[in-house]
């Protein structure tokens, strides 16, 4: 997309936000329709059930519209909305007895291990499915880090845990993911 078109898009979104703040229902509906599918995809990534993802997305939009005055434009509207959707998803998981007792992990000294290499024949969908099979306390941290691009400070804020707990869970989750992918690679190579 050309910068010109992007600025037009931003202008269009800004106008919709301005109209939504005035209580214009049509503008709110247009904003909702512009972002609904993308936000539903993000919610589904965490809650793994379409009906629940729809509920989470609806709740997130209600929260966004009731807090629209807080949107300051420092990030794109989509990025601001995405944060609300992720927080709503995590809140849902917590209410569902999500095991987020991350702060109870021992203080491990984890080397900065940025090696995320996986075997070349594994597709992104295989990796996503493998992440989904991990216990939630690992899969959520992996998704926030790998898919959303959050750093440990942001993850610790979202999950209300220490930065060290975030690092530890990421490290453990990554090791479990590697094991799953190795097993998957083994299965796939023996199925051919």
Summarize the structure in words.
- Residues 101-112 and 188-192 have low confidence and may be disordered.
- This protein has eight helices and no strands.
- α6 (136-147) packs across α8 (163-191) and α7 packs across α8.
- It is 71% helix and 0% strand.
- It has helices spanning 3-21, 25-47, 50-66, 77-95, 124-133, 136-147, 152-159, 163-191.
- The chain folds into two domains: 3-95, Rna Polymerase Sigma Factor, Chain: A (Orthogonal Bundle); 102-191, Orthogonal Bundle (Arc Repressor Mutant, subunit A), CATH 1.10.10.10.
- The longest helix has 29 residues, at 163-191.
- The chain has 192 residues and is an all-alpha fold.
- Belongs to the sigma-70 factor family. ECF subfamily.
- This is RNA polymerase sigma factor.
- GO terms for molecular function: DNA binding; sigma factor activity.
- Residues 31-97 form the RNA polymerase sigma-70 region domain.
- Residues 127-176 form the RNA polymerase sigma factor 70 region 4 type domain.
Alpha plus pi helix count: 8
The name of the CATH architecture of the largest domain is: Orthogonal Bundle
What is the molecular shape? Answer: elongated
Q: Briefly, what CATH class of the largest domain?
A: Mainly Alpha
- Structural class category: mainly alpha
Low-confidence runs = 101-112, 188-192
- Provide the CATH superfamily of the largest domain: RNA polymerase sigma factor, region 2, helix turn helix motif
The major beta sheet can be summarized as: none
Order of helices and strands: HHHHHHHH
Strand coverage percent: under 5%
The overall average pLDDT, rounded, is 82
Rounded Rg: 19 Å
Family: Belongs to the sigma-70 factor family. ECF subfamily.
Keywords: DNA-binding, Sigma factor, Transcription, Transcription regulation
GO biological process, one term: DNA-templated transcription initiation
Domain RNA polymerase sigma factor 70 region 4 type: 127-176
